[in-house]
Design brief:
The protein is of the alpha/beta class. The chain contains nine helices and twelve strands.
């Protein structure tokens, strides 16, 4: 059951109706922030989104889902997150963006320096979620870990991750993992920028032409800066996985939240356009 409550997020400065960004009529878009191995939160959010989609279908609304990347690392169950996303994409229209952590994961199979960086930033938990023994891992060399990677990570998962996109545009919104380089045309944006940038993107105050929806940079609450909306609420540490829901000119949020006793609930905030 999805519970609705008054807005816990502050929308950007008031705009005239003509200036409000929108998605095409009859469409609803769900953008999901960085999951980082929290399969428990993702399962709850998938169930809530599927329920919400069914309600929309009864009204003739078509839905799309965008996972903003960083499905893996840091949290305890990255392997299952990848499997959940893989199965969800078979059932729904789901776009999945490649985050910097997916980039590191894929490159770690071939490059030891990347593997070392990957392990320092949550990759160890990812490997353990695929069944790598903790004691064996501790004693292994980088070369041995690479060999084990080949053995424990299913090829279908590697192929699936390699298929992730870098950007998706729907209506007046652009979905990327990290952000964009301000002032640079979309077709000239560098892949590394889309997956890794923070500044000058985060502090840029002018219009990008489209409203950029992104993850990558953790904040306690959703940040609506007018020209961008950041929805990475640090699921792996905070126990809060956030989805932005767009329909016409309206925005609302669904948040999977971990309670004090470890139970997961999903609540949603309705925002006025």
């Amino acid at each position: 059951m999805i519970k609705y409550f008054s807005s816990m997020f502050t929308p950007s400065k008031a705009k005239s109706k003509k200036e409000l960004p929108r998605v095409p009529k009859g469409q609803r878009v769900y953008a999901v922030g960085d999951v980082h191995g929290r399969s428990d939160l993702l399962i709850a959010l998938i169930e809530a989104i599927d329920e919400d989609i069914r309600d929309g279908e009864a009204e003739g609304i078509e839905s799309e889902i965008v996972l903003l990347g960083d499905l893996v690392d840091r949290g305890p169950d990255s392997a299952n997150v990848i499997e959940l996303a893989r199965k969800w994409r078979k059932l729904r229209k789901v776009h999945i963006l490649c985050g910097n952590h997916e980039e590191m994961f894929l490159n770690a199979f071939e490059d030891k320096d990347t593997l070392r960086h990957f392990l320092r930033h949550g990759g160890r938990e990812t490997l353990q979620s695929y069944g790598m023994d903790r004691k064996v891992f501790t004693k292994a060399s980088l070369g041995e870990i690479q060999d084990m990677l080949e053995e424990i990570v299913p090829k279908k998962h590697r192929k699936f991750i390699a298929s992730f996109e870098d950007m998706v545009q729907i209506g007046d919104y652009l979905f990327v993992h990290a952000g964009i380089d301000p002032g640079i045309p979309l077709e000239e944006q560098k892949q590394r920028t889309l997956r890794w940038i923070r500044e000058p993107f985060l502090s840029y105050g002018k219009s990008h032409g489209l409203v950029v929806v992104h993850g990558h940079t953790i904040t306690d609450e959703v940040v609506d800066a007018g020209n961008r909306i950041g929805i990475d609420t640090g699921a792996y540490a905070s126990g809060r996985l956030t989805a932005l829901v767009l329909e016409g000119k309206k925005r609302r949020y669904l948040v999977a939240m971990e309670g004090k006793k470890g139970n997961i609930s999903v609540e949603g905030a309705k925002l006025r356009a």
